[in-house]
Design brief:
- The chain has about 120 residues and is an alpha+beta fold.
- The protein folds into two domains: about 1-75, Lipocalin (Beta Barrel), CATH 2.40.128; about 85-115.
- The protein has one helix at about 90-110; strands at about 1-10, 10-15, 20-25, 30-35, 40-45, 50-60, 65-70, 75.
- The strands form two sheets. The protein has a four-stranded antiparallel β-sheet, with no helix packed on it. The protein has a four-stranded antiparallel β-sheet with strand order 5-6-7-8, with no helix packed on it.
- The longest helix is centred in the C-terminal third of the chain and has 25 residues, at about 90-110.
- Keywords: Membrane, Transmembrane, Transmembrane helix.
């Protein structure tokens, strides 16, 4: 699943992630870095004379579930993610939290006001 799309020095950088924790960074449609369980590791690569680091963070409230920090020669860049973001995962999270909250309130009310069956 494509998580992000950035443009660095006229190069298209795309970040793909699977449900099993594998991340792939592609530059101009060619894989340049691949990591498993990249929550603690960062992707390192060179474009021209510049060295780039891409670090992923867990962002539960975000549509893709991940946020990325991009560093150029050690300095953090502020870039716009050009991937169209979908709010489907955020909607799913809200529904799950609503069902869990309803279940907890229902259990509490059932214990506080038991129903007598005669």
């Amino acid at each position: 699943m494509k998580c992000a799309e950035y443009y660095l020095d006229n190069h298209k950088v795309e970040i793909y992630a699977t449900l099993f924790g594998k991340e792939v960074v592609m530059v101009n449609n060619k894989p340049i870095s691949e990591l498993k369980s990249s929550a603690r590791k960062s992707h390192h690569f060179k474009l021209g004379n510049n060295t780039y680091d891409i670090r992923s963070k867990l962002n539960i409230a975000g549509p893709s579930g991940k946020a990325f920090e991009i560093y150029k020669n050690g300095e953090e860049l502020t870039l716009v993610n050009f991937k169209v973001q979908s709010s489907r995962s955020l909607l799913f999270l809200i529904i799950v939290l609503g069902i869990a909250l309803g279940y907890i309130v229902g259990i509490y009310l059932y214990q506080a006001y038991p129903i007598a069956i005669e």
